[in-house]
Amino acid sequence: MKTKKPIIELVISLGSNIEPRFKHVQEAVLLIKKNIGPIIKSSLIYETPAWGFISTPFLNACITIETILNTKNALIALQKIEKELGRKPKIGLAYEARPIDLDILFSSEGIFNYEHLTVPHSLLHERKFVLVPLVDIAPNYVHPLLHKTTQQLLETCNDSSEIKITKHQLT
Predict the structure, then answer these.
(1) How far apart are the first and last CA of the chain?
(2) In terms of Cα–Cα distance, which of 125, 127, 72 is closest to 95?
(3) pLDDT for 70-108, tens place per residue?
(4) CA distances from residue 119 to 46, 50, 123, 130, 160 in whole angstroms, order as listed
(5) Are the C-beta atoms of residues 131 and 153 closer than 8 Å to each other?
(6) Which of 8, 24, 34, 124 is placed for a possible disulfide with 16 were both Cys, Cβ 3.0 to 4.6 Å?
(7) Catalytic residue annotation
C-alpha cells in the first residue's frame, strides 16, 4: 500500500518591478500551479514603492498554495521559477530591481531557520508591501513567533509606504 504524502500549505509573496511587471507575476503564478501545487487563495495585486532601495515601483501579491513538496524543496522550485523568469543572482547585500521575487512567508510545516530559508520570513512584519496582500488572504493567521495576527502586525507596522490597489487580478 502506498503512503500518501502529506499536503503542505505555503503562503508565498510575489513581487516584480521590472516591466512587464504583471506578466512576470502572472507567469510565476502559472509556473507555481504547474510545478509546485494549486493555489487555494490569492490576494489583490498592489503597486508599492521599492523597499530598502531606490527603484521603480513593484507589483506585489500573496498566495496560499497546497503542495506535496516539503518547504525546502518548494524553495528550490520557487528559485528555479525565478531563474526561468529572468532573475539574476544577487550581487552583494543590497536590494535590487528584479523581474520576479518569490518568498515563502509561512509554512504549515512550521518554523525554519536555515542559511537560505527563514520561515516565517524574518522581515514580513516590517513590510506593508507584504502585510497588505497577506491580510487579504490570512487576516487571522497568527505569526508563530510574534504571536500576533497578520491584521495586528499590519496595524502596528511602522512602514509608511503608500500601497495602491491595481486593476490587475491573478488567474
Answers:
(1) 37
(2) 127
(3) 999 999 999 999 999 987 766 655 567 788 999 999 999
(4) 23, 22, 10, 14, 24
(5) yes
(6) 24
(7) 87, 98, 101, 103
| Residue 34, helix vs strand vs coil | helix
C-alpha cell at 79: 528559485
Residues facing residue 118 across a β-bridge? 113
- Say what angle helices 21-35 and 71-84 make with each other, to 10 degrees: 140
CA distance 110 to 126: 20
Nearest CA to 16 among 78, 58, 52? 58
Q: Give the chain's residues under pLDDT 70.
A: 1-3, 89-95
Of the candidates 145, 141, 156, the one whose C-alpha atom is nearest the C-alpha of residue 43 is 141
Residue 50 and residue 17 in contact, taking contact as beta carbons nearer than 8 Å? yes
Cβ-count burial of 117 within 10 angstroms (0-12 exposed, 13-18 middle, 19+ buried)? middle
In angstroms, the CA 93 to CA 90 distance is 8
